[in-house]
Amino acid sequence: MYLRIRDCWNRPICSVPGAEIDLMDRVTDDYGWNFRFTGTTTRAVNLGSYNYLGFAENSGVCAHAAIASTKRLGVGVGSTRQEVGTMQIHHELEELVARFIGTEDAVVFGMGFATNSMNIPSIMHKGCLILSDQYNHASLILGSRLSGATIQVFKHNDMEDLEARLRDAIVYGQPRSHRAWKKIFIMVEGIYSMEGSIVCLPDVIRLKKKYKAYLYLDEAHSIGALGPHGRGVVDYWDCDVRDVDIMMGTFTKSFGSLGGYIAGKKELINHLRCNSQNCCYGTSMSPPVAQQIITTMKIIMGADGTDEGQRRIQQLASNTVYFRTRLKQMGFIVYGSDDSPVVPMMLFMVAKVPAFSRAMREAGIAVVVVGHPATSVIESRARFCLSASLTKDMLDRVLTVIDRVGDQLTLKYSKLNPPRPLSGSKNNMEGEQNGGARMNGKKKQ
Question: What is the sign of the dihedral through the CA atoms of 397, 47, 435 and 424?
């Protein structure tokens, strides 16, 4: 079946992934086994890239700074951090990240996925227990498995289930021996990339303190995209960053660059610098990549002397509320939290996945469609990623097309009364709204 609908994925582009992108046109003569390019392109509104703050640009302050860094330091480092691959720009970036996040120290890595998968085994090990949200990212799952620790999965954003597992872990200890666990880690994400939901961080911190556990927070999608200052889900909920033991995030979304970071206490960061597989064997971050992060982070912090960072943060928040509200008013079922720029719109039936994707492409809109095994078989969806670079006219154009295609494919499943326009505030701790969204891992009836 995948071959027949393969054209809906792996679409090559030939432009900067900004508000609009150029898709390379291709056709198949053998039902999806092979594709050939026609030599033409299609301009499309981009709702597929993780360009939350619109910093994926090939002109402007960030691009010029990266070009200057390339001319001065070159493209590649050619060594690991533990050998001769640490440059002054890496120290500058790590100091800036620690200041931005609000932690004692930070260490950066050249790949976002490996920031989780290659560092978790350096922190957690046999005799430890990991309590992992059921919708955690594949990098967290892989890192947990490589660590040798025992893994237990709790229902998505369900604090009752999490507390029950914490209580059982304290009471019963390890299997067979019933010895106490060496460490218990709670592993969650800021924004869940397939669900669009925001973690109930205050409740997680409350349970972490109550049961003396450790908290690992993955802010890959939330850093830069949430909070009045763009500092992620901790900023969004106005929590104390010191209550989170391990702060992880990536630079591939809001910062328009590459790599990831782990931030926390100096003892943790020094341990990773000495023991992390990434530091030992991974090539150091490229200088222009590091410079892109430094420039964008300074803009977000306002350290460049302008309000451009605040403007982008507010524009993203405004676009998110407007887009989600309009979809729900049209009658679509939308998952996730009101303030999440990741917007999953439910298609449900597998046959409607390629139909929706192709109809949107013909209308000049690039979207991501998701099905099994990334979701359950009956929960196929379209996932829109909003950006500060999208204008209201672009969003209105997209919504008009979605409205028309939704009627054609019978996608307006919601039977609930359409919500009134939202103010953008946090509506409830579960972060769910009307239109069939999830609450504590279950769909609202």
Answer: negative
What are the DSSP calls for 157-205, one per residue? T-HHHHHHHHHHHHHH-STTT-PPPSEEEEEEESB-TTT-PBP-HHHHH
Coil, strand or helix at 215: strand
The H or E element containing residue 105 is strand 105-109
Q: Contact 185/130 with Cβ under 8 angstroms?
A: yes
| Chain center to CA of 326 | 23
Q: Kindly state the tokens that stand for 174.
A: 């390890």
C-alpha 404/C-alpha 409 separation (Å) is: 9
Identify the three-state secondary structure at position 82.
coil
Q: Is 399 helix (H, G, I), strand (E, B) or coil?
A: helix
pLDDT digits (tens, 9 = 90+) for 409-430: 999 998 876 656 544 445 444 4
Q: Which amino acid is at 375?
A: T
* Integer Cα distance of 199 and 222 in angstroms: 10
Task: Give the count of alpha carbons within 13 A of 216, CB side only.
Answer: 26
Classify 370 in phi/psi space as left (phi over 0), alpha (psi -120 to 50) or beta: beta
Tens digit of pLDDT for each residue in 316-342? 999 999 999 999 999 999 999 999 999
Structure-token pair, residue 225: 């995209």
How far apart, in whole angstroms, are the C-alpha atoms of residue 264 and residue 278?
17
The model's pTM: 0.90
Angle between helices 287-301 and 308-330 (to 10 degrees): 80
DSSP 8-class letter at 363: T
**pLDDT tens digits for 8-29?**
999 999 999 999 999 999 999 9
Q: 260-264 and 105-109: which strand pairing?
A: antiparallel
Residues 6+ apart with CB under 8 A from 13: 21, 22, 23, 24
Give the closest residue to 441 by CA, choosing from 136, 151, 116, 130. Answer: 136
